[in-house]
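Sample pair:
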Amino acid sequence: MKLGLGTAALGRPQYINVRAGNSNNSDLEAFRKHSFSVLEEAYKLGVRYFDTAPGYGLAEELVLEWLQTKNDDSIEIATKWGYTYTANFDANATIHEVKEHSFSKLKEQWNFSKQLLPYLKVYQIHSATIETRVLENKEVLKQLAFLKKEDNLKIGLTTTGTNQVEIIKKALDVLVNGEQLFDMFQVTYNFLDQSLLEIFKDLIHQNKSIVIKEALANGRVFRNQHYKHYDQMYAVLESLSKKYTVGIDAISLKYCTQTIPESIVLSGASDIGQLKENLKLTSFSLSPDEIKLLDSLKVSSKFYWAERKKLQWN
């Protein structure tokens, strides 16, 4: 199964996205039960890789609660440190999360995340950037190397923004006690932002793992009257969707698994219906010509991220 489940939309009612219609998540207990049921259904459908973070509201806590109902060592949990959720489930909050890549934040968040062991297999810096200088913080890097050995973890990072490739290259050069620290890279990739292609062969050559996030470009792959400049993309996707009798989501996810074949692609499904639609990616293969056609839809990384910045929490 190349599809993993990301829990951002399961842990907090608001998420940066292009959402079709309104969603009322004001009843937190109902929201929690719903999210728990999505985790359980994903497991029943064969998903074994689950990605979470303390920055995703109640997601880490929810995953921990769910794991207590399981006894299956094929389950792999990935979590992160570096973001704190601050919206307190308030739809009108102005600040939903705060980034902090300090040693004290690492220690604080690890104290909760370590409860996910032994299912916890991957520990990541959440949205590593040049600006926070986290890849130069020797205290942090030394602690991550310690956790890697102590708890047999893969150490990774997630990337966001125009300089994803620069961050990955910098991370590959990070050595602790003469050994590369980072084993896994969770990268934004889809046919609009294809910057990962610049470096993915190097990652495979160095035996690194790749996880793809935002395969649906935060919902921008779906036809939307506010994005007229994507009319050609919508037409291509709708044609392929009709041909293979699957949703546009499955086409978008399949593109990722075929062009980065060694990767795990995350579903961001917020309900069981979406999850089942996502899993239809296993029912077909895109032809080389169709891959080329989707390749041709790419935009500049600068444009992609400038547009993403304008998306709202909803």
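The CA atoms of residues 13 and 25 lie 6 Å apart.
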